[in-house]
Amino acid sequence: MDVQRHRVLGLPIDVCRDVLAAALALHDRGGGQVVTLNAEMSMAALAQPDLEAVIQAAELVIPDGSGVVGALALQGVRVRRCPGIDLARALLQAAADRHWRVALVGASPQVMAALQQRLPDEIPGLQLVLASHGFQPAEAWPGLEQHLQELRPDLVLAALGVPRQETWIRRLRQGQPGLWMGVGGSFDVWSGNKKRAPGWMGALHIEWLYRLLQEPARWRRMLALPRYALAVLSGNRPRPATQTPAAGRTGE
User: Considering only Cβ atoms within 10 Å of each terminal Cβ, which end of the chain, N or C, has fewer?
Assistant: First the structure.
């Protein structure tokens, strides 16, 4: 699988014809971390060295947001946006087809309970070896993490919010096989707890507006979008002091 690594504002973005094939090839090579990069996460990374370090070290960084796709286009690189929720769902289907062992971590207890019921029905053959919600007490996390590492699953999807899910994955997957991927709010959508933006909004690159209407409290985080556009057009990385880290549910 031919994967070319490009950079926008110093952050890596991998470009290939078939993102799913690239992820499967990564698994076959021993696994690694998959990061779904959009403008909001990019701006958070430029303000948070720990998050930027994770993105720089990730084995596969896919263009999740239209802002990232547009930034690449300005460099003459044409690529289609690959929403992380679509890649994660495709990986679950691939996991069932390939008899992979799958672990899910994150979201609320209610959402995780719904996933445990719905996903096996929707994806026959899916083997869930761990399904743990993200609102565990602090003293429970070490044991959960040790159990997860002992399982050595083929696919780990974590919905713990940005940046925690990325830094958590980076710490836990050292010496581990399989694909590890942060999926943000995907569990909420799959469980039926939230709805995804209509396709026409995605085609117009205004899914951010749908999310804002669902969660008005996100407005501060959305300010990252115009800042990202200005930074890309100017070609200058913003100063960290001017950035507001992207908030995400910690799950604890």
Answer: C
